[in-house]
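Reopening: structure tokens for the NAP complex, inputs below.
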Amino acid sequence: MKAYILSEPGKGPGAWEMVDRPEPVPGPGEAVVAVRAASLNYRDLMIARGQYFRGVRAGVIPLSDGAGEVLSVGGMVSKVQPGDRVMNAFFPSWESGPIYPGAIRLNLGAGNLDGMLAERVAFPASALVRIPDYLSYEEAATLPCAAVTAWNALFESSPPLATGSTILTLGTGGVSMFAFQFAKASGLRVIGTTGSAAKLERMRALGFVHAINYRMVLEWQEEVRRVTAGLGVDHAIEVAGGTLPRTLRATRLGGIVSFIGGLTGFSQQVSLELLLQAGARLQPIVVGSVAMFENMTRAMEAHQIRPMVDEIFSFGLANQALAKLESGAHFGKIVIRV
Ligand SMILES: NC(=O)c1ccc[n+]([C@@H]2O[C@H](COP(=O)([O-])OP(=O)(O)OC[C@H]3O[C@@H](n4cnc5c(N)ncnc54)[C@H](OP(=O)(O)O)[C@@H]3O)[C@@H](O)[C@H]2O)c1
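Re-run output (same inputs, fresh job):
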């Protein structure tokens, strides 16, 4: 069977090479999945560029997110059966409950566990989640990392927000657009930033109550405060890292900042004075558990939320898909059909 491997870590787009691999055989507790689609996250670019902070193994099969059909199961598997349409969880050993060290032991698509950019994979069956009927494989493949992270930040790690409360998203990548969709479906108002004038128009058309171009409005945190009656938002989804001081100022006293990513790197300093003055709860979010994934999938089905798929690339064009992610031109998720 065909699979990609990370053959040149550090190269960025072009780091992946298509190779022949032996057919996977399901071990005890595993299912073999015929992968139909896989999706890209910013993390995959960091891994390919050699910038990822956890161990990366040359030769690993990339990508943490995929969806497909169960072909066969090994012994002691009762959760899924051949023919089931499934997605894989990002952290296969984190089944439920709060995060703990063992939950993040497996480093999918980077270090000690092969990822989903292959025609077939053997995966722990307990970490497979059924795809709701209304979603295609391409849509389902976008959910394991970005969507679960946004869901965890808003609904698993935070107290419920009253209808009409306001959240802040940064940019129009995967995590931010899922946060927007989940919040909007829950009756929350969403203020968002983007660095693109064209994307600004799309955001307004989709229902952001306010959209700000962070390249034009450098002090965008002041604009956020202005449109929230001087108070700031109730919950901010921080994915850029270097924006954290601004995000803290854009969040109300007693609000929440979910710290998720470092699109601009991880070297930003934040003063203790600012942290205390902001008076918001700063909570790191690390994707989520299988149970969170299942909770999210039920909510998505109830609201018929469809992931925003920017573009679908063919299997042979996987490196071009990574180049598009690197360009930042996408709106939502980039998918590879397998
Ligand atoms: N902690 C976790 O468990 C976890 C899980 C998932 C992701 N992450 C992290 O979260 C971040 C986002 O991931 P993703 O997969 O959603 O990324 P993505 O889809 O690649 O999103 C990239 C987008 O971010 C926006 N952006 C870039 N620089 C920005 C800036 N300075 N301010 C605001 N927006 C900016 C751009 O949107 P515009 O063109 O609209 O400006 C760009 O298109 C990454 O750092 C990723 O590693 C962490």
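The mean pLDDT is 97. The first strand starts at residue 2 and ends at 6. Marking as resolved unless the reporter disagrees.
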